[in-house]
Amino acid sequence: MLVKSLESKVEKHVAVGVIASIVLALCQSCASAPDGPIESPAEGKGSSAVELNREGRWAEAAVIAEHEATDESLPVRRRCEAYYSLVYAEIRLGRRERAAAHLRAFDGLRDDSVSGTWVLREIDRLREGAHATATPAVDDWETVDDSARLGFDAEILAQHQELCRESGADACLIVQDGRIIQEWYAETYAEPIEAMSSTKSVSGLLVGMLEADGKLSRDDPVARWVPEWQAGAEGGVTIRHLLTMTSGLLGSHVKRPAGTTVGGVTDKDALVFSLPLVDEPGTAWAYSNEGAYLLSPILRRAAGEPLEDYAQRRLLAPLGMTSSRMHVYPEGQTWTHATLWTTPRDLARIGQLMLDRGQWRGEQIVPETWVAESTRSSQSLKPDYGLLWWLDVPDGYAARGAYDTNIYVFPARRLVVVRMQRGARASSTRYEPAAFGLLKRLYRGR
Questions:
Q1: Is residue 330 very low, low, confident or very high in pLDDT (cuts 50, 70, 90)?
Q2: In what helix (H) or strand (E) does residue 64 lie, and over which residues does it extend?
């Protein structure tokens, strides 16, 4: 059923289940970075820790959160929420041993009051960071020690590295024609690290692969795979609409109760199966995490196996992405909208795959035609958007995620750039568009 107004849309979503409005007010990730970590909605000292984490003032956040987490006079749920903020801050400070110790304290404290809540779900995501390694994994990428000898401007490379540092990045990587010419990691770097919404672009490749396998078509109605979408306007939505963000679902930029977003619920399948449309399919462009996640049950059913297994066997393993895996939570629900666990070197392999038109070292992994269609305008409503790839990059295209966790591909220059950032960090310096100007001048004399 098509919902004609935002007011009636929100009312219908409330029936799915609404988390208290204070989550929306305090959770930055629900508003501006929907694929990032959800921060504690606790009030008082807990909310101060949230604000400090949001501003990148992690040491102060840790002090406040630890005080509340260890205050035995407070309810267990409130203390558990404080532990979330504390663990988040410790990970951002690079104090992973302390983060792991606080996680153990959380596990010993938690009771039925946190069962089924956001904090239990999100604390599991933080476990990845607490047990991450600060040393980049060794792989078979060729590296260039003397980039100046190959014609690259050493001063421009130095400026790019400084831009990465000043903009709050955890890592930056530049690959030219299959060789790493610059690789930089912040002191707080640890892997694996989330690809944020750049995961969407990877999920788009899986659609192309399943289409080539004869398992589905981009023009299939969503209702072929999701019976709940057979009635009303939803029956006219196709997989292509999900790939182009023209399904008619409410855009993720619109503020709403967290319980009506994929970032605010545990059972994401149930949520997206019940969502109403706010526009007729194909008549409006709106960036939608929910639409991107709806691909998850579709691809799982088309593949006939867990989607994370299909992705590992057909895409990640052939590319040598040994430190990468799709996020699954709860069991059976693979996230196609965010949170591919990966590394800069692994993510660069996706960029190189796109640069080489779906080939990896001579083997066709993704159909060349799918790569071409993914990286050209897919509709007239937003011409600079392809099939889950962004086309608003000068002389190139990008996979984009929260905190500028991005893959940039510049075909004419045979260049792939990866920038990753684990979470919020106080910085007045933006990576774009300054990076585009530097990368354009990367070659001496050109």
A1: confident
A2: helix 58-69
- Are the beta carbons of 436 and 377 closer than 8 angstroms? no
User: What's the Cα-to-Cα distance from 156 to each of 147, 378, 434, 435, rounded to whole Å?
Assistant: 11, 34, 12, 10
- Report the distance separating Cα 249 and Cα 237, nearest Å: 10
Question: Is 328 buried (19+), middle (13-18) or exposed (0-12) by CB count in 10 A?
Answer: middle
**Does residue 125 surpass a pLDDT of 60?**
yes
- CA dihedral of 395, 398, 403, 405, whole degrees rounded to 10: -120
Tell me the pTM: 0.79
The C-alpha R_g of the chain, in whole angstroms, comes to: 22
Look up tokens 């052939």; give the residue. 318
Instruction: Quote the CA–CA distance of 409 and 150 in Å, as a whole number.
Output: 20
Confidence of residue 378 (pLDDT cuts 50, 70, 90): very high
210 neighbors 299 (Cβ within 8 angstroms): yes
Residue 125 contacts by C-beta under 8 Å, 6 or more apart in sequence?
A: 37, 194, 327, 329, 339
Whether residue 1 has pLDDT greater than 80: no
Q: For 357-368, what is each residue's pLDDT tens digit?
A: 999 999 999 999
> Rounded CA gap, 53 and 288, in Å?
26
289 touches 199 (CB < 8 A)? no
Write down the H helix ranges in 175-329.
198-212, 222-225, 239-244, 268-274, 289-303, 307-311
> Comparing 88 with 237, which gets the higher pLDDT?
237
Residue 55 in this model has a pLDDT that exceeds 70: yes
CA angle in degrees (0–180, nearest 5) for 121-39-300: 40
305 CB-contact burial (10 Å; exposed 0-12 / middle 13-18 / buried 19+)? exposed
- What pLDDT is stored for residue 434 in this prediction? 95
CA pair distance 279, 346, nearest whole angstrom: 38
Average pLDDT, the chain: 86
Strands 390-393 and 359-360 turn out to be unpaired
Structural domains of the chain, ranges and CATH numbers in brackets? 37-130 (no CATH), 142-196+323-357+383-446 (3.40.710.10)
**Half-sphere exposure of residue 316, counting CA atoms within 13 Å on the CB side?**
22
Report angle CA 25, 58, 117 to the nearest 5 degrees: 45
